[in-house]
Amino acid sequence: MTAETIAPADAPAKRVVPARTAIRRSFSSPIASLIVIVITIVWTIPTVGLFVTSVRPAGDVANTGWWTVLAHPAFTLGNYQTVLFQSTFGASAGLMPYLVNSLAITIPATIIPLTLAAMAAYALAWVRFKFSDTVFFIIFALQIVPLQMALIPLLQIFTWLKTIGLDFTGTYVQVWTAHTMFALPLAIFLIHNFMAQLPSDIMEAATVDGAGFFKVFRTIVLPLSTPALASFAIFQFLWVWNDLLVGLTFAGGTPDVAPLTVRLAQLGGSCGRNWELLTAGAFISIIIPLVVFFSLQRYFVRGLLAGSVKG
Amino acid sequence: MASSTLLAASNLSDAGLKFFNSFGTVITFLAIVLAVFWAAGRATGRFYKPIAIFVFLGPAIALLLIGLVFPAILTFYLSLKNSDGSTFIGADNYTWAFTNSNIQDILITTLLWILVAPIVTTLLGLGLALLVDRLKLQAVYKSLIFLPMAISFVGASFIWRFVYEARDPSQPQVGLLSQIAIWLGAKHPPNWILSHPLNTFLLMVIMIWVQTGFAMVILSAALKAVPDDVIEAARMDGARGGRLLFYVTIPMIRNTLIVVLTTIMITTLKVFDIVRTMTGGNFGTQVLSNEMYTQKFVFFNDGRGSALAVILFIAVLPLMIYNVVQLRKEREVR
Predict the structure, then answer these.
(1) Do B4 and A85 touch (CB under 8 A)?
(2) CA B297, B80, B303 angle in degrees (round to 5)?
């Protein structure tokens, strides 16, 4: 991976213009470089410590600090084997079921809101009707409702559904639904902004050729909106994967449904000092976001820039 | 050995079933969408457009009404009732929130969070944005500083719990912070997480660690958008170094600075994961959003939990409105 490909949103940096060089020079000193290097090292060390600890044997971890690893170079993948598959931390089968849950929650909780939001955004942008601007503005304004406001009543709705025979408690359905609902305002807003800027003559030409709204949506609007859809998909994937509050509220703590974050948060409270296992567990939970982040950094940054006000 | 093979097999079938459910749901969902499109696409005449609007917009609006609008209203309503929602008690839950000394401490801690963490983060991010662009390996530095943003708060909390791990000084240390304190000459470094009020600041470090990269990337983009001729003109007028920075560059990116600050404030106000994972709200570190969860799911007090949610909502509201309006303005300019 070259330095160029992992640069977050700073492609123009290569073309250095005179005035900018000047302002840069006015801050330029070896001390400034040193500050950045020191901060970068400080920012990286905690994660390195976690990773190094997770691949050291238990005895070494208990008796020496991870920074002495070069003096005691011993490595093992056994910790990962143990946390994933063995009955540690009181769970019957390690973290593996929770890892599976995280994936099983995240994929539908990304695709479903993405689809529904794309449909709604298209209708608001191109199937104009009398109140379409008002509806868009209300959806846009719903971003101000924090998650916390909706949790208790939504839980009561699920309890009420159970009394009329629709029992979703203890299933993924609750978690998917909650994530979908909370994702929609931001998703519709972002995707609408992109779709509204598509050239109208393509749409008109297709309509003249006899294509209806549904065909235009599937064959023209969706393919052209790929950048916005990708940005939101990555943003939402990371958001759901890293979420604790929704998971904790709607999935409970059982290995049947609960995602990795919920399980780790439980362990944080209950589990003692087996740092080689705790660090391995934590590393498993962060490796997927890190891979997504490094491979799709550009899209992620774009989503973040646009979506920083997600409630 | 046999039992572990058995376990692996049960793991595998469990995973298979879950993925089957998960992918099955996605495929069923997409199939239904396509089927509805196909059916609705056959409609003709004056009903065609209303049907299309209903099909495209209906599901999203229904979910928003059930999932956000109705619950938000219900939360207001529940906050005026007692613990199980059976009796109407007026503003008692709010009186409780502002007079109970425990909750007052929590509100003060929360206030400390939203003042310290966002300001430190924004300043650090601004400093880095100004400094990093000149360096040769800037992309590497940026990526490494930005990286914690991809990690969940739960994961970040584990990383930092390990840094803050404290042991008796007679034993070898495994926590980096204790070891550094000893290297620097401390005889008895404290048990960091237990020492109030230091522990709240140590938890803030996690928030700062996660969010600095976000502030840096956005401010760096804003700095690059400052037009060259403005800088050039200021230089012609003799502005250099610090003056150029404080009188020209920073005013030019003022809006972005405020958006970054308020965005981090909103995130901070709702910080839940860090406190929950690090201390569970004990040792004097409790904050509003975690207390709300505790009231609802530990004490089963819907009324008080809802009242705290409403307080949180009212606290976030001005920041959110500012951000949303700002974002809208920026989009109109583009």
Answers:
(1) yes
(2) 10
Of residues A36, A119, A184, nearest to B132 (C-beta) = A36
DSSP string, B45-91: GGGHHHHHHHHHHHHHHHHHIIIIIHHHHHHHHHTTB-TTS-SB-TT
Homologous superfamily, domain B92-333: MetI-like (1.10.3720.10)
Give dist(CA A88, CA A40) in Å, integer.
35
Count how many residues are written for chain B.
Answer: 334
Residue B40: list chain A partners with CB under 8 A: 214
pTM (predicted TM-score): 0.84
Number of Cβ within 10 Å of residue B291's Cβ equals: 25
Query: B309 vs A148: CB contact, 8 Å cut-off?
Result: yes
Contact residues, chain A, for B217 at CB < 8 Å: 8-9, 301, 304-305
Enclosing H/E stretch for B44? none
A224 touches chain B (CB under 8 A): no
CATH tag, A96-306: 1.10.3720.10
A253 touches chain B (CB under 8 A): no
Domain segments of chain A: what residues?
11-82, 96-306
For chain B, 334 residues long, give each residue's pLDDT as a single digit of tens. Answer: 444 555 566 677 888 888 888 899 999 999 999 999 999 988 878 888 899 999 999 999 999 999 999 999 999 999 999 888 888 888 899 999 999 999 999 999 999 999 999 999 999 999 999 888 777 778 888 889 988 988 988 999 889 988 998 888 888 888 899 899 989 988 888 888 888 889 999 999 999 999 999 899 888 888 888 888 888 888 888 777 777 888 888 888 888 888 889 888 888 887 888 998 888 888 889 999 899 988 988 888 989 999 999 998 898 888 878 877 776 676 555 4
What span, in angstroms and rounded, lies between the C-alpha atoms of B288 and B311? Answer: 9
Determine the 3-state secondary structure of B175 from DSSP.
coil
Write the DSSP string, B84-103: TS-SB-TTHHHHHHHH-HHH
Nearest CB neighbour to A309, from listed B229, B296, B320: B320
- The two structure tokens encoding residue B323: 């951000």
Domain ranges in chain B? 2-78, 92-333
**Contact between residue B293 and residue A247 where contact means Cβ atoms under 8 Å apart:** no
Burial class (CB in 10 A: 0-12, 13-18, 19+), B3: exposed
